[in-house]
Structures
1.
Amino acid sequence: MTQVFEKHISLVGLPGSGKTTIGRYLARRWSMGYVDVDVAIEEQIGCAIRDFFATEGEERFREVEAEVLARLLARPEKTVVATGGGAVLKPANRERLRAHSTVVYLSASPHEIARRLQRDTQRPLLQVGNPLQRLLDLHVQRDPLYREVADFVVAGNGLSATQVAQRVA
Ligand code: S3P
């Protein structure tokens, strides 16, 4: 079913909340374009995000993330935008997300996400220490920011990615 939206549809949430899978599903369902901000960042920096974190540090990564997000949200063609989990940290990103997109927060508990990510080795912020504790900390820090920026909050606990996507749709 082709949908005509006046704004992009941005998905926000913790790493592992399903932004990529659900974003792809929604874009297919609505015959829209899909962009993954992390992929666009990797195209710009020419290496994996985890390597960039290791060599350049998180602050530099956040600057690049803000540039890429601004560029993607400024495109006239309306797309589904899967953001990185930390995109809400900068106030300027939150303003842009709200101005240029309808924002959906994919909310899932840190326990559920930790189960889903058990074998994931790609996410630099979860490589340090105990991943569950890290997710609990990120949730405390970011849940208010995701809620602040969101037009809709969709709870995904106990649901498959397809079920969450149907709920969002
Ligand atoms: C980050 C999440 C990652 C990626 C980067 C930083 C974060 O994206 O942008 O590693 O701060 O939560 P995903 O949420 O797609 O894993």
2.
Amino acid sequence: MLLEVRDLHVEFRTRDGIARAVGGVGCTVDAGETLAVLGESGCGKSVTAQAVMGILDTPPGRITRGEVLFQGRDLLTLKEEERRRIRGARMAMIFQDALSALNPVLTVGDQLGEMFVVHRGMSRKDARARAVDLMDRVRIPAAAQRVRDYPHQFSGGMRQRIMIAMALALEPALIIADEPTTALDVTVQAQVMDLLGELRREYRMGLVLITHDLGVVADVADRIAVMYAGRIVESAPVHDIYKAPAHPYTRGLLDSVPRLDRKGRRLTAIKGQPPNLVAIPPGCAFHPRCPLARDVCRTDVPPLYEVSEGRVSACHFWRECLHGRD
Ligand code: SF4
Ligand code: MG
């Protein structure tokens, strides 16, 4: 097991009170596996990722419970210096907004090269050559010239490729990509996603792909974990989820995106808004929006029911959802 997150809890102190951003998340990622973490914005996906990476400082969040086992060691018990070493070399993160993640006053060649100078002790010249290689690997045309350009001189899609190159530089065992294609237009999204999938296979990395967009994960993910109000509400192999969701929230997400296998079907948005994390509804947090909700849903928090091997759902009525209308 490459990554195992156990019972992770994260809180934020806000003006309105304590926000329970992550309320007991558990998940695993194997080497070479892609886990997609899916949910509307504000459901705790990014906070979970930041807690795993150990970069939960802005805004000030606090891990109150849980374990983050990376290659068998609990990262939450390591010294910051040791974590920083792991973060640089063995796990890397890709963000949505490359322009703010890259340094605007350094050429991309210098930024990529820096990784090799700092972590591998290479000379500037060798590091520069490796930077060009990497830019080639992520298919940036004319890499040998473009290595001298600054981030703002690249298109959004090309900048995202540079971020991928930065993440790949030290050949990490795990990459966490937080909405890596959200800012791009649809065709560029598909290209960047294909590239990420291809490199993941080639380097046999674990990949955690965080997204609000079910449309982008079908082809690349092995498994999907659906998050709602700081919890994972369904987790299953990707094909199971597409065939028949076992949680009404997953069904709502599926019904709100266009799908090739369901041409001509009306798209319906999930009614209402995700809850404020300072005041999560009692019982099942999804009950105010759920078409299947009953009295018990308003009082009893659903545990994670085992639906089948490798598949869980936090819905009292998962059977009904699974075999229900379609
Ligand atoms: Fe809906 Fe109840 Fe299931 Fe929650 S537990 S998803 S409210 S049916
Ligand atoms: Mg986010």
3.
Amino acid sequence: MAPQEPDRHTFYAGKPQPSADSKETFQTTDPSTGKPVCTIHTSSPSAIDSAIRSAQSAFPSWSATPPIDRARILLRAVALLRARNDDLARLETIDTGKPFSETSTVDIVTGTDVLEYFAGLVAAGGLNGETLRLRDTVHAYTTKEPLGVCAAIGAWNYPIQIALWKSAPALAAGNTLVYKPSEFTPLHAEHLASIYREAGLPDGVFNVVYGAGDVGARLTSHPAIAKVSFTGQVATGKKVAASAAGGMKYVTMELGGKSPLIILPDAPLDSAADVALLANFFSSGQVCTNGTRVFVPRPLQRDFERALLDRIRHVRPGDLFDPATNFGPLSSALHRDKVLRYIRTGTELDRARLLCGGPEPVDGLPDSVRDGYWVRPTIFTDCTDDMAVAREEVFGPVMSVLYYDAVDEAVRRANATDLGLAAGVVGRDLDQCHRVIAQLQAGITWVNTWGESPAEMAVGGWKLSGVGVENGRRGLEAWVRNKSTLIDMSGSVPTVFTKL
Ligand code: NDP
């Protein structure tokens, strides 16, 4: 079958640049059918260098553009993104395998909100510094300066949202950007670049390179790159941070997690089960902040499991464009195989009790999507802390339920991991909820809900889950450097080198 999307080429100086590409290509596939969708031309080393040069030549003028004028351009892009929400959502569905019911209400919406937030923030003085009055004749001021040409490298689970969460504060602060989407989900990038251009973004401010890890690695080690903002796995993040450190570049690292969800003894069971399902099966479990270790008081075991089984019937795989479908295939055959290996490990080696799901094919799929990369929503229960499924990030629809006897014990076990991205509690007594949250070692926490991440709220991981934050006021600080200036108006230089 012929690809459904036009070829993608390195995008710089305001347009796709077929002539600059190497001969290497790769195909993307629709995860619901396994069929090819698009041919991507891998950016050659010289094409990557040209994209960086394009960003370098655009920097002096873009960084000197007043923030309110930059904001006007970005707000025009906001309007275009909202007007084209459904077209972009269709593309994200074909690229990622997420149902249209999800991509049309979450992916572009939450990315665009962040663009609107940072445009508004810089227009309203968010890049202003401080004035410090030190003495009558001496004061100091600070200014926030953009960093220069920055690199953004994305994961495959929220492609356009990640591209917007990185480009919004970067561009609003006056930087120029070279963006590499994941090789598995690159389709959005050219549309975003074209929308920015249509909104009035000068050529060279937003550029796109395509390819696998070697393309990302060329960006992170390039001397002209001032900062690397990375979203991906911990193991890759370590390589990216090490490479960036060699050039003393700024970094933001948004990495993986194995986040705990603690159901407190007084929790309403229906809400607890709703939160657990949301925290595990949204986006078919391919969410970095998923609450995959669900700690439940032992006396609630039977009722909690029944509540989970009642609800699992409402996880509906199917045609991704059917409004009733709320569960899609995994993003690639490679990733499906990895998740299935974890499920087999859970049953065969860990010997966790399989409450539902498992490695068998998903039943009842329409013929049109039967060849997709499906995995059943799977719940392991009676898990122990040392099991692979309860310890390692699976990044698929696999929940591990662990029982506990005392809340302190649950907190201790929840924190016994090198990761610290997210955590949450469900309970009626809000005092106790806050006491538990205060003890949990994670950068993003929720009480009686899961997953909402509004533009105003800074988010980032603790421990091996990351460095720095995205979004919120603090998210802008990640894209600027500080300059402090002290002015002495006394008329005499306070030197010690005077005649005795
Ligand atoms: P990967 O780490 O495999 O890849 C992330 C990006 O890095 C891809 O574009 C990849 O290229 C690129 N890359 C690979 N090697 C290098 C290298 N040496 N130098 C520079 N770039 C490189 O992550 P996944 O795509 O598998 O994404 C899933 C992971 O992302 C999960 O661990 C998830 O938790 C995490 N994540 C974290 C989020 C957060 O906000 N904390 C949000 C979303 C996801 P390519 O894959 O194209 O070869």
